[in-house]
Amino acid sequence: MFSEKAKATEQQSASLVARPDAVESVAATGSYTVECVGADGQVKWSETIKNLVVTVGKNAMLDEFFAGSAYTAAWYLGLVDGTSSPTYNAADTMGSHAGWSEFTSYSEATRPAPTWSSASAGSKATTATSFSISGSGTVAGAFMTTGSAKSGTTGTLYSAGNFTGGSRTVASGDTLNVTYTATLT
User: Fold this and answer.
1) CA-to-CA distance for 133 and 41, rounded, in angstroms?
2) Please, what's the b/e burial string for 84-100 (b: 16 or more CB within 10 A of its CB; e: otherwise)?
3) Is the pLDDT score of 113 beyond 80?
4) What is the distance between the alpha carbons of residues 144 and 114, in angstroms, rounded to a whole number?
5) Beta-sheet pairing, 175-184 with 123-125
6) How far apart are CA 116 and CA 126, in angstroms?
């Protein structure tokens, strides 16, 4: 005699598969747009340049953002002298930047302070900031700092960059209009 017995069982399982390769990163980048307007009001040249955001600039951004309060320092734009071939290093500071020097042949008593727009889509830009050129020379690029003194070595250097086509000639009476756009990607 056969006896069949059936035992009912239920089984469930669940698993979670995490995406260990999902990484989020942020890069601080930016660009300067420089337009040279001659004494006759005609645009002589215009160029947009990429820049290097230096380590002290990135650290200032992180320290101020995560400190829970708004950054209170003013920002100033400066011009890079083009009499040599400027080079930049992530370790550059206002007190130590052996690869470049500042172009100061402009009428403003201090480095001009830009006006910022509201951030949008991960970018924040300045309005055009003017430099009234007071002597002939060459300009290689631009930089941003919290120090206002021309040729000053204090303040936080945020970024600096060269024109891609080499240094540009400027003459007394020219106006350089500089715009900076900061981007987090």
Assistant:
1) 14
2) eebebeeebbbeebeeb
3) yes
4) 10
5) antiparallel
6) 4
Place of tokens 């992530």: 90
Calpha distance 136→173 (Å, rounded): 9
Query: What is the structure's pLDDT at 76?
Result: 96
Alpha carbons 116 and 127: distance in angstroms, whole number: 6
Question: What predicted TM-score, i.e. pTM, was given to this entire model?
Answer: 0.84
Q: Which pLDDT belongs to residue 41? A: 97
Are 30 and 181 a contacting pair, CB within 8 Å? yes
108 in Cβ contact with 131 (< 8 Å):
yes
Which is more confidently placed, 107 or 61?
Answer: 107
Predicted confidence at residue 17, as pLDDT, reads 58
